[in-house]
Design goal:
Elements lengths: L1 H5 L6 E7 L3 H9 L3 E12 L2 E11 H9 L1
């Protein structure tokens, strides 16, 4: 998907937002080389409470460098 985003779509940046308590979801961008930029407090109402979101991003140049390795 990232190859498509940075290749075909020619995006410069991709962002991922995950609930901070969702360890499995957060592991995906971390494994792919995304950098955590921030935490957005009470970003989403989930069932019966608000959850914070961790914000991750990766730039096209970072993705290309990672793929070249």
């Amino acid at each position: 998907m990232l190859d498509h985003a940075f290749g075909e779509l020619r995006l410069n940046r991709v962002e991922v937002f995950c609930a901070t308590d969702n360890v499995k979801s957060r592991a995906i961008p971390e494994r792919l080389g995304f950098k955590q930029e921030d935490v957005i407090r009470q970003a989403e109402w989930l069932t019966d409470h608000y959850v914070d979101h961790a914000v991750y991003s990766i730039l096209a140049e970072e993705w290309r460098a990672r793929r070249a390795k």
